[in-house]
Amino acid sequence: MPQRDVFHDVVKNALIKDGWTITHDPFILPFGVHNLYIDLGAERAIVAAEKDGRKIAVEIKSFIGRSEVDDLENALGQYILYRSLLQRREPGRTLYLAVPMSAYDGVFSTPIGRVVIEDEHLKLIVFDPTEEVIQQWIH
Q1: Is the dihedral of CA 68, 72, 74, 75 positive or negative?
Q2: Considering only CA atoms, which of 12, 43, 27, 2 is closest in space to residue 127?
Q3: What pLDDT was estimated at residue 49?
Q4: What fold characterizes domain 8-138?
Q5: Domain extents for the chain?
Q6: pLDDT over 70 for what percent of the chain?
Q7: pTM recorded for the entire structure
Q8: What gap in Å lies between CA 91 and CA 23, rounded to an integer?
Q9: What is the pLDDT of residues 49-82, one digit of tens each?
Q10: CA 139 to chain centre
């Protein structure tokens, strides 16, 4: 099993504070002879009659490497792979990429980041690692 991201527990706590129930830690995605490990699986209970329960999978990335662009390349490749396989295995679950506010305010707010968000339809969870809260959901 892969090593956890440094912000794993931060994002897990933030999701719980936001009303999510962690159902998988990690979310194992078997595909053929391979097992892929998405950091978390979570569900939101039905709150009102007009709202369905939602299921998500969350891949957490710290963006603390030497290059934000390298971190973006790695995160994007993993996100696209997981999203593609998740759509085939569990189409009712939506994949999100969880990133700290510093990454969202950094590389994701540059032209390269905005293009990637738009063209790849990235779904992001922007979190505050100090307060352990979700600052923004980007659908």
Answers
A1: positive
A2: 12
A3: 42
A4: Trna Endonuclease; Chain: A, domain 1 (3.40.1350)
A5: 8-138
A6: 94
A7: 0.93
A8: 17
A9: 444 578 999 999 999 999 999 999 999 999 999 9
A10: 11
